[in-house]
Amino acid sequence: xxxxxxxxxxxxxxxxxxxxxxxxxxxLRWAYEGYDVxxxxxxxxxxxxxxxxxxDVVTLDLGLPPDPDGTTEGFATLQAILTLKPDTKVIVAxxxxxxxxxxxxxxxxxxxxxxKPIDIDALGLIVARAFHVHALxxxxxxxxxxxxxxxxxxxxxxxxxxxxxxxxxxxxxxxxVSVMLLGASGTGKELLARGVHDSSPRRNGAFVAINCAAxxxxxxxxxxxxxxxxxxxxxxxxxxxxxxxxxxxxxxxDEVGDxxxxxxxxxxxxxxxxxxxxxxxxxPIAVDTRIVCATHQDIDAMIAEGRFREDLxxxxxxxxxxIPSxxxxxxDAGLLAHHFLKKYAKTMHSSVTGLSPDARAxxxxxxxxxxxxxxxxxxxxxxxxxxxxxVTAADLDLAGDAEDVPLNLRSVREIADRxxxxxxxxxxxxxxxNTAKLLGVSRPTLYxxxxxxxxxx
Length: 457
What we know:
single chain, 457 residues, alpha/beta, Rossmann fold, Helicase, Ruva Protein, domain 3, five-stranded parallel beta sheet, 46% helix
């Protein structure tokens, strides 16, 4: 190995160049004088450099000895580097079957690919971008390790879209107003509701949650308002409802859109007068609790159809917070995957330590229709199923082959359309008119697309 000397400044970002052409080595060292450059000419010296120097970014020529005219040794080196240091950004260069090599390299975990002959300036931009992304990911991991120290407790995110939501939650938490959280299933609505409570003056009171969709209509009134002894068959004792139990604290009504109309009237009365009557009781009971509610449904459409009271909506939704899907939270899928891996590896006493390159690529590529809940479930199962130290794409049930990427333009267009429609539906909370506006198409056209792609609002 060459290019290591005591005079190298230690404050510069470390860049490892794996290249067997001595002339190109010199050219690259000169071009990248803004980095702490280490040079290696084969697999053994490259791995020694990774162990000793721990570079953030590596440029790797696939044509290494003893196979300089092929790519076998280069791909073996790529896998070895990522096994040693999975967070390394490896930029692969090759002149041998560029397209096939690029597909395989990305599938194997390379961060980017560059076809020879090398353009120093263009490659320099890729290298700079790789260092920037590596720095962002390192900061994301630091944020994950600090979970539980912020106002919102377990909320783990570095995505601007979600950080905006958490800042909004922190601002409104101190005001004693009702908050409605709108977002798809699995986006973390209860976690944010707890964040409202934990950041509010009511934090020392109880946080009481109830899923209105999970309780039969015949029992929901009793669950919310309680009942007196003898109020109905089986009422053998007086029981406080969830509203009373949340006295001095916060009541979280999950899936509030599922509350039946007759019960909506009773809930509205409580919000107006701040008193309740238990089933079978006649005595008004004053209750001081804050209401936070959530739903994945289109409340505007429900109001228009007469399925949800407009006056109740305005009482519940003094502040409305829209929660982005995981697909809209740039970079968070990988960040959360590492968090869940560490969590379940610890609780299950597993020897799993990280994600394989193909697992990281699969996590970044997947659309996560089930959002954070789906990601957590897949990671939990993967920690159980993993046979080695690293979770693979197969363990996540996300295995795929780079060669399977469709090249037919119609297929590519369909994939892009599906993804755009799903994202627009999420952003518009399932509202067809707003979704059509976001996509720049008419309502009839959107209905045709939904039918054609078997998608549902």
